[in-house]
Structures are given as C-alpha cells and as structure tokens.
Amino acid sequence: MNGVLIIDKPSGLTSHDVVNRVRRILQERSVGHLGTLDPLATGVLPLVIGNLTRIAQFYTASEKCYEGVIRFGFATDSYDAQGEPVGPPQSVHLSLDQVRESAACFRGVIQQVPPPFSAKKIQGVPAYKLARKHKEVPLKPVQVEIKEFEILGFEDERARFRARVGSGTYMRSVAHEMGRKLGCGAHLESLRRTSVAEFDLADAHSLEALLAAASSGQAREQAEDLFVHPRKLLPQFPSVTATDEAAAHIRSGRAVNLPELSRARQVKVFQGQRDLIAIATRVAGTLFHPKIVLAGEVRQLAKP
Predict the structure, then answer these.
(1) Is the pTM of this model over 0.85?
(2) Phi (first) and psi of residue 293, to 5 degrees
(3) How many domains does the chain fold into?
C-alpha cells in the first residue's frame, strides 16, 4: 500500500500516536509523518505510506499555516495550555491595537528559542525529557521565518490569530514571548494547523473515517480512496507520463528519455494517470535519471 494520507489530528494525541493508529488500521508498517503536531494541536497531519515514505525528504522545509488562540495573563512551563502556570495570574490591560503592534514584531526572519518541552535535542537528549525531570534546558535561539501573523480579534484576555510560517517555527514560543514583552505573561491556548505545503483541511480525514473505510467490504479500495491523488503531490515538479518501455527502465533504475518539459531539472514520472513511479533528475537534454524509484508492483492508490 503506497500513498499520502492527510489526517485531521484530534487534540490529545501525539503525532506518533496517530502514526501507530494508522499502521494498525491499514495493517501497514511503513507509515511516517511530514512534520509533528503538538498533542494539544489539531489539524493537518500528512502521512506518507509504503514506498512514498521516500518523498519525505522533499517536505523538510515545508511552509505551514495555523489558526489559534493566545491566552494572556499567565505563562506556563510548556508555553501552552497543557503546562503548569509559571507564577500567579496577572491583570491584563491590553487593547487590540497593542496586541497587533506586538504581533508585528514577530513577522519576518527572527531568532526564536524553542520551548523547553519540545523535541529539540540537547547533546542527543530531547529537551522535553530534561524538562519533565525539571532539569535545565539550555536551548539556543534558531532562525525561523514568520511570513504572516495576523491578530483577528482580542476579547476576554484572548487573542485569535492566523499565521503562515516557515519550517521549525513554534507558535508556542511566539505566544510566550508576546506575553513576556507585554508584561503580563501568555501561553498558547489552542492551535489548529490548516495547511502543510500543498495539503490543507479539504484533503484531511478523521481517524474514524479511515477506520470506517478500512472496515468496509472492500477495505483496501475504500481506504485508498481517502489518499491524496499522486498528481497533486510535489507541485513544484512537472509531471511526465512515461511509455511502458521507459517505465520498465525507470523501475530498474536506468536513465531514459522523457517528453520535453520546459527544461525542468526534476520531474515526477507517471505510468498512466495514477502510478507515480519515480522522481527523476535531468542529465542532459531529454535524458533523465531516476533519483528516487517509487514503483514496485503495487498499482497507484487514489482516484481522481
């Protein structure tokens, strides 16, 4: 079974919890994700299955979009609502304009310290393991990019926001730093990821929907119907359709001549409409070498 499946992750589960559930539902061991979501967060969690786990390398720097709520009045040790409060609650005397002015300071390329309860490693040990033992978590600032950060409203000490960020950005850290700068403390109360790369909520399915599909009469076909159509994957690479002869060569890792496509450096190679068999790199002219072979004997999954 090969494909890309977008799960609408519920709150309370880790990304690894979701991966394990999908492995059991699909009875497929080879399942990975394209970027974690905190347990508190919900929304778009792309999973790669079977041979398509090999395309994960193209998503390491994917842009992400979020909607959420920042609660002002106290900070927490995890920078979100699941953590313990740090100090007593403080009075909040902020206006919408003040919150928006503060948010503007976080737009662009900034230096950000990851939360202590995060997967960032310190001498090989995940930071959250040290934080749980109340040990010092000496995390260094890293460069991240916040491309959009808009405060949609402010009411009852809570600011609703929408953000578009580069890879590695923690909205928990943004909330924590806003509270620190405004002098009243803050934490991330809720977060929903609305998109990752080319995937958004319109592509997403609940774990319950996947279980229902996999438990139906034609379990495999019904589950595969929930997968993202392979022509939608990696839109930065043009698609070419190989002849049966060229496809056979590609499956064995050999270079082939493919239809000319505006001098693209890399292309997605299909056999037919749905069978994504390789990501190929141009050697010269129309000669391409398969960088990653995704084929095998399994037919492609999703329907248009």
Answers:
(1) yes
(2) -95, 120
(3) 3
